[in-house]
Amino acid sequence: MKLFDSKSKQALKDPLMQDNPITFQVLGICSALAVTVKMDTAIVMSFAVVFVLTMSNTVVSIFRNMIPSRVRIIFSLLVISSLVTLTDQYLKAYMYDMSKELNVFLALIITNCIVLGRAEAFAMKEGPWRSFLDGLGNALGYGIILVAVAAFRELFGSGSLMGFQIISDSMYTSGYQNNGLMVLSPGAFIILGLIIWVQRTIGKIEEE
Amino acid sequence: MLEHYISLATKAIFIENILLAYFLGMCSFLAISKRVDTSIGLGFAVTVVLTITAPANWAIHHYFLRDGALSWAGLPTVNLSYLNFIVFIAVIAAMVQLVEMILDRFSEKLYHNLGIFLPLIAVNCSILGGSLFLVEREYTFIESTVFGFGSGLGFFLAIASMSSIRYKLRYSNVPSKLKGLGITMLLTGLLSMAFMAFSGIDL
Fold first, then answer.
1. Which residues pair with A161 in a beta bridge?
2. Regarding beta strands A160-161 and A164-165, do their DSSP bridges make them parallel or antiparallel, or are they unpaired?
3. What angle do CA B142, B148, B152 make, to 5 degrees?
4. Which of B28, B74, B129, B136 could serve as a FRET partner for A28 with CA atoms 20 to 30 Å apart?
5. Is the dihedral of CA A122, A128, A132, A133 positive or negative?
6. A78-120 pLDDT tens trace
C-alpha cells in the first residue's frame, strides 16, 4: 500500500478548502467564534484541535472493530475527553496565561462537533492512517478559518496582529478609530458570514 | 436574596446569552433553526436538560472533585478537579438518557416531540459550557440551578427568534452564494447586536 494514494490525499486535502469543516460541513462553530478576538489564542486553539482531532481519529479508528455500535458514542466521547484533559493540563503547566484566556473553550473541544463528527463519519469506517490524515486535514481546515477570522478581528478591532501594532500612531492622531464592534461577539458572526460568502463564491458552492 | 437570583437569571437570559454572547450551542442552532416547530422543541429540551445537569454537576464538583472536596472521606489533600471534563460529559450523557427514559415512560407525546433531539443534546456545547461556567464562577447550588435554567431559556429565546426570522426569509431574495449558512451567520450577528442592547441593565 502506498503511503499517499489518491484517496488518502483526498482525505487530507478536501477539508482544507471545498469541504471545509466550518464553512461547508457546518461543524465546530461554537469554539471557532469565541477564541478569535486575538490571533495568538486562535493559533493555540487550532494547535489544540489539530492534536485532539488527529489523535482521536487515529485511536477511534484503531479500535473501530472492537467497539459494539451501541456504545460507540460514549467510547468516542471518552477518548476525546481524555485527550482534551491532556491538552488542558499541558497548557496549564507550560502556558498558564494562555490557558486562562482560552477559559472554558478549550474544554469545549469535547463537544466540538468536528471531533465527534469526524470520528463517526470517517474513523469508524476507515483505517488508522487515512483517519489520521482526515483528522489532520479537517483540523487544519478549521485552523485556517479560525486564523482568518482572528486576523480580521484583531486588525480592525485592536489595530494589531499577534500583539504587534500594525496601524501606526499617526493614523490614530489623524482621527482613525478602532472598530469596537469587532472585539464583541456580533463582529465574529458578521466576519464569519462574510468569509463564508467569499469562499462560496470562489468555490462555486451552492446550498439548497 | 430573591433579587439576586432574578438578576442572575436576567443576566443569563438576556445580557450574557449563552448562544449570542458565548457562541455555545451554535452547531445545533444553525442546523435546527430552519423550522419553527423543531426549534421550539429543541429549545425546550435544552432548557430541561440544562436545568437538571447544572445542579447535578455542581453537586458532583462540590462534593467529589474540587480541591479538598474529599475531606469527608478522610482525604483532605486529594484534588480531582482534572477529572472535571470526563465526569461532566458522562453525567450529561447519563442525564440525557435518564430524561429520555422518563419521558418515554410518562409522556408519550412529549417523547415523540423531544425524543429526536435528546441524543443531539448530549453533545451540545451549551450544556457542557454551562457546567464549566458554574465551576469557574463559583456559584452556589441555587445559583447554579438558576443559571442553568436562565441559560436554557436564553437558548430557547435565541433559537425561536432565529427560526421565525428564517421562516420569513424564505420569501426574500438572498444572493445565491449567501443562502443558507452565510445569511444565517449575518443574521445571528444582528440578533446578537440587538441582545447587546440589554447590557447595562442591572436589577
1. A164
2. antiparallel
3. 150
4. B136
5. negative
6. 888 899 889 988 988 898 888 888 877 888 888 777 888 888 8
Asked if A189 lies within 8 A of B192 by C-beta distance, the reply is yes
Reduce the secondary structure of A127-168 to three states and give it as a string.
CHHHHHHHHHHHHHHHHHHHHHHHHHHHHHHHCEECCEECCC
A78 to chain B: which residues are within 8 Å by CB?
86
Q: Scanning the structure block, which residue is given the C-alpha cell 467564534?
A: A33
Phi/psi of residue A160, each to 5°?
-140, 170
Report ipTM (2 d.p.): 0.81
Which residue matches cell numbers 482526515? Answer: A134
Query: What is the sign of the dihedral through the CA atoms of B36, B38, B40 and B42?
Result: negative
Buried b (16+ CB within 10 A) or exposed e, B111-133: bebbeebbebbbbbbbbbbbbbb
C-alpha cell at A58: 487515529
pLDDT at position B156 is 92
The full set of domain ranges for chain A reads 8-145
Q: pLDDT, tens digit, for every residue of B32-75?
A: 888 888 888 888 888 988 999 999 999 998 888 887 777 777 77
- Measured between alpha carbons, how far is A115 from B89 in angstroms, rounded to an integer? 15
Question: pLDDT by residue (tens digit) across B129-144?
Answer: 888 888 888 889 999 9
pLDDT in tens, A11-58: 777 777 777 777 777 777 777 778 888 888 889 989 999 999 999 999
Is A23–B181 a contact, with Cβ atoms under 8 angstroms apart?
Answer: yes
Q: What is the rounded distance in angstroms from the CA atom of residue B132 to the CA atom of residue B70?
A: 20
* Residue in A23, A27, A29, A84 to test binding to B, most B beta-carbons within 10 Å: A29
Q: Is the pLDDT of residue A208 over 60?
A: no
- Coil, strand or helix: which one is B101? helix
